[in-house]
Design brief:
The complex is a heterodimer of chains A (112) and B (116). By secondary structure, chain A is mostly beta strands. Chain A has no helices and eleven strands. In chain A, strands 2, 4, 5, 6, 9, 10 and 11 form a seven-stranded mixed β-sheet that branches. A four-stranded antiparallel β-sheet of chain A has the order 1-3-8-7, with no helix packed on it. In chain A, strand 5 and strand 6 form a beta hairpin. The model of chain B has no long low-confidence stretch (mean pLDDT 92). Classes of the chains: A mainly beta (112), B mainly beta (116). At the A-B interface, strand 5, strand 9 and strand 10 of A face strand 6 of B.
Chain lengths: 112, 116
């Protein structure tokens, strides 16, 4: 089945630790995205990548980093510099930047 | 910058009835796309319907239809014959057609409850 997978579904970390969230897609999409969702709010864009080895900052990139070494994978690292990392993180992909985005199931990150 | 506003934090509808969710947006652009996404309790975002601003005809997908009023910058979603599975958060989203980053701007969401 084609789709977007994010693992794990729930992630717990201690404050001060970096943590990496996984996002994999087998849809042959060129573009991938990371969003953050806080309770009762819409999604905000963290980073996006339109092609391998290229990525751009979104609206709230501070405290996050990404890599795009393979077309299928776009991992997000939440660094210790992110002031409020506890949130729900959604990964998305699209055929190209001009096409609709399709979302993965998300990862709930809790930092204590 | 574009903004998207959903003025109804919560709505409820009786099963089999019709409900309309409101969305307004602010933009100075003439060419753009509008979307409605559904987020059920599983929290996965599902694309419900899409509207191109240059099209006058309102988009329809089965029981879901939109009322797109470009001059008023309004983009409401009508759900007909509501089903229990329609209960979810619904997000309205905007994307510029000239946006090199394909960035979506989301509204704050409307929680839809369906009563049996």
């Amino acid at each position: 089945d084609g789709g977007i997978t994010q693992s794990p579904k729930y992630l717990f970390r201690k404050e001060g630790q970096n943590v990496t969230l996984s996002c994999e897609q087998n849809l042959n999409h060129d573009a991938m995205y990371w969003y953050r969702q806080d309770p009762g709010q819409g999604l905000r864009l963290i980073y996006y990548s339109q092609i391998v080895n290229d990525f751009q900052k979104g609206d709230i990139a501070e405290g996050y980093s990404v890599s795009r070494e393979k077309k299928e994978s776009f991992p997000l690292t939440v660094t210790s510099a992110q002031k409020n990392p506890t949130a729900f993180y959604l990964c998305a992909s699209s055929y190209t930047l001009a096409y609709e985005q399709y979302f993965g199931p998300g990862t709930r990150l809790t930092v204590t | 910058a574009q903004t998207v506003t959903q003025s109804q934090p919560e709505m409820s509808v009786q099963e089999a009835e019709t409900v309309t969710l409101s969305c307004t947006y602010d933009t100075s652009e003439s060419d753009y796309y509008l979307f409605w996404y559904k987020q059920p309790p599983s929290r996965q975002m599902i694309l419900v319907i899409r509207q191109e601003a240059y099209k006058q005809q309102n988009a329809t997908e089965n029981r879901f239809s939109v009322n797109f009023q470009k001059a008023a910058k309004s983009f409401s979603l009508k759900i007909s014959d509501s089903q229990l599975g329609d209960a979810a958060m619904y997000f309205c989203a905007y994307r510029s057609a000239n946006n090199a980053g394909n960035m979506l701007t989301f509204g704050g969401g409307t929680r839809l409850m369906v009563k049996p």
